[in-house]
Design brief:
Blueprint: H1 12-19, E1 31-32, H2 35-42, E2 52-56, H3 62-69, E3 73-78, H4 84-93, E4 98-102, E5 118-122, H5 129-137, E6 146-154, H6 155-162, H7 172-178, E7 181-189, E8 194-195, E9 202-209, H8 218-230, H9 236-239, H10 246-252, H11 266-278
Parallel strand pairs: 2-3, 2-5, 3-4, 5-6
Antiparallel strand pairs: 1-8, 6-9, 7-9
Helix pairs in contact: 2-3, 8-11, 10-11
Length: about 280
């Protein structure tokens, strides 16, 4: 940028037409073209000037340009080869601010490409959004190198991430998001904002890591929640009976074994996991 004034960029619709970037349904693509909305999403983590950002699935670069305008140092990973020339053109407007990786985000570790801490922001492809979020929330190193996740999901998935006990949306994903991070819906996005317009509403979830509970392993927690929610209409004494020591753990933690998975709090799942970790 010259004199810190963002360059005049061509409209996103022109970029899409120039490079033939019609959204690919197989890749879960739905593009956001509203520049003001994109600027609002980019602002969710706070001031991004000279801050490292990792973005998945930039497509024609709508959110990417908003991040670059905010002064961020952006690394993007894009699987769709058609989008690379458009991103390279965008890079020419912001020298030394944009790194482009062509590849599959499920196979890429952002920390291999970014030194130090970073934020993750993305209008995630619908077909891999949950898998990527689980991958980032399941990192063995904790606290992780990422400072926050600001991610677009179908509203149904967003609700599952932030859900509390005794709700229809409460699930294994709720517990994974809540046991060592804080998650909330930062913004709801109407389906009409996308091109093409999906059949469902969307929302941006903002996730910030917190301290890892002592004495609890991810493997044990995942095992308990897999059994509990895999048979969520059954009482815990039935769904957990195949896990050695689980019924004893329920009793030791004063958890009624006739309850079902959706009424047990994240803290109670943590205590069950801790008990199984330390049980002789």
């Amino acid at each position: 940028m010259r004199n810190n004034i963002p360059p005049q960029l061509p409209p996103l619709r022109e970029v899409i037409a120039k490079y033939g970037l019609d959204a690919n349904k197989a890749l879960g693509q739905n593009f956001l073209l509203d520049e003001q909305l994109l600027d609002r999403i980019a602002a969710i983590p706070g001031d991004l000037k000279n801050i490292n950002i990792f973005e998945v699935g930039p497509g024609p670069g709508g959110l990417t340009r908003a991040l670059l305008r905010a002064g961020a140092i952006v690394t993007v990973v894009e699987r769709d080869a058609r989008c690379i020339p458009a991103l390279e053109e965008l890079s020419s407007y912001f020298p030394n601010q944009l790194t482009i990786i062509e590849g599959d985000a499920l196979k890429i570790n952002p920390s291999d490409y970014i030194d130090g801490e970073y934020h993750l922001l993305s209008n995630l492809p619908y077909n891999i959004g949950s898998a990527l979020t689980v991958k980032w929330l399941s990192e063995q190193q904790w606290p992780p190198r990422w400072l926050s996740l600001s991610l677009m999901f179908q509203k149904e998935v967003a609700n599952r991430i932030v859900a509390k006990p005794n709700s229809k949306s409460y699930s294994r994903l709720s517990i994974l998001a809540g046991w060592r991070s804080d998650a909330h819906i930062a913004m709801k996005v109407h389906r009409s904002a996308f091109t093409p317009s999906p059949k469902v509403m969307s929302a941006v979830v903002h996730i910030v890591p917190k301290d890892n509970p002592a004495g609890v392993s991810l493997a044990t927690l995942e095992n308990i929640t897999a059994h509990a929610f895999g048979q969520r209409r059954k009482m815990l004494r039935q769904s957990l009976k195949s896990i050695k020591g689980a019924l004893e753990a329920l009793k030791a933690n004063d958890i009624d074994d006739t309850l079902r998975a959706e009424v047990i709090t994240i803290e109670q799942y943590i205590e069950l996991s801790r008990y199984l970790e330390y049980k002789p």
